[in-house]
Amino acid sequence: MPYDRFRSASLTAPNLRTHLVAGAAALLALAATATGVAQQPVEAADATPGQVVEVTYEERLSAEQVQAAAAASFGRYGPPETENAVDVYGLRFATTGLDGGTVVVPATLFVPVEPSRERAPLYVFGSGTTGLADVCAPSREADLPAPLGDYRGYLAPYAARGIVTVFPDYLGFEDPDRPQAYFHAASEAHVLLDAARAVRTTFEEAIWMGTLEEAVVTGGYSQGGHAAFAAADRVADYAPEVPLAGAIGYAATTDVEALFREGPYYAPYVLAAWSSVYGVDRVRPKTVLAERWLPSLQREAVQVCVDRAQQVYPFDVDAMFDAAFADSLRRGTLDATHPELHALFRENRTGLSGHGLPALVVQGGNDVIVHDATQERFVQALCGLGSDVRYLNDPVARHRDTRPAGFEAAVGWIHDRAAGVPAPSTCGE
């Protein structure tokens, strides 16, 4: 029972040991209570990227509770098989901010209890699009009138199959002065890799949690697939000590220029976020959007969550964009007509650095946001750069269906990477 260290305490309020987080100057004074466990946080200015700032115990879910809670996110794919209970923690950790300083990001951590395997791999999962405003942050999903992704219900089943799973917010949600750094590859990579560092440190220092495998996998849905492959691109330079064993994309949106063509109502989010990151003079939204959308860009794109934005903006290239931009986008001539924005599209395309890591790519044949042809070009390019890629296409799956459609394949794929099994490949097919 490597993960059940709580026999002498209440199963709903583990008696956590006091320990020192690596590199921290303050002790994590953890105390069990009926409502959870909290600690004295480390100040962001004193933290280093990947350092744990705060850990809070939230609850224990039985295997049956995990399965029941997953019903909404798994839908017609049926309830997932579960093998063990799951402990849920709130985690706050430090990462590199856009200005090079240190900022703190929240995450949810799912830990298997009494798994069938002695050691667990670590899965770092990136959210799909939720919005740019703080209220739209994945960590605040429970506060919204309706969930934007049912991520808690979707991710707990991975832990119920013996995979430690962490789900961080992206950079910017914790900063009231700027929007989320949407589709910004560098910061997405930093967040996912620092989340991995933080969880590994937590397990090293807290013997009550059990033992991690020397294997980390990044994964994500839609925008999260962009982030998962951004981490693969940057792990060697940014976090070489993280033993990244592969990346998984569910309807991964790795090419932002293609997203403008195929899912244009996400473009205002990108333009508003990149204007904050790179400056308006470089992004130049006035040369991209149709005039009717410009006055409301800061109001609608920055302040509303994705469910509302999809009702405001059109899913049509000609209705969304300036006519000259739409023509150039279709022709593939943005390098000549909009060179600054084209350069940002190339800078923020992910997965194709030649990292050589294996990948699992799950696509839906009924996806109207990321088209099959676009995903297959990405897979072919990834194969050509030396990665072993398993490509799965569910012909009836919509964009959001790729998460439950790929769940069983992903669970097996993650455990196989941890066990050192050679990665499967459909590259020759």
Supply the helix-strand structural class. alpha/beta
What is the annotated CATH architecture of the largest domain?
3-Layer(aba) Sandwich
Number of helices: 17
Percent of residues in beta strands: 15-25%
Please list the strands of the largest sheet in the order they lie side by side. 5-6-7-9-8-10-11-12-13
List the uncertain runs. 1-41
- Ends apart, CA distance between termini: 42 Å
CATH class of the largest domain: Alpha Beta
Mean pLDDT: 88
| Overall morphology | globular
Number of beta-strand segments: 13
Largest sheet: 9 strands, mixed
What is the name of the CATH superfamily of the largest domain? Answer: Alpha/Beta hydrolase fold, catalytic domain
Report the order of strands and helices.
EEEEEHHEEEHEHEHEHHHHHHHHHEHEHH
Helix content: 25-40%
Question: What is the CA-based Rg, rounded?
Answer: 21 Å
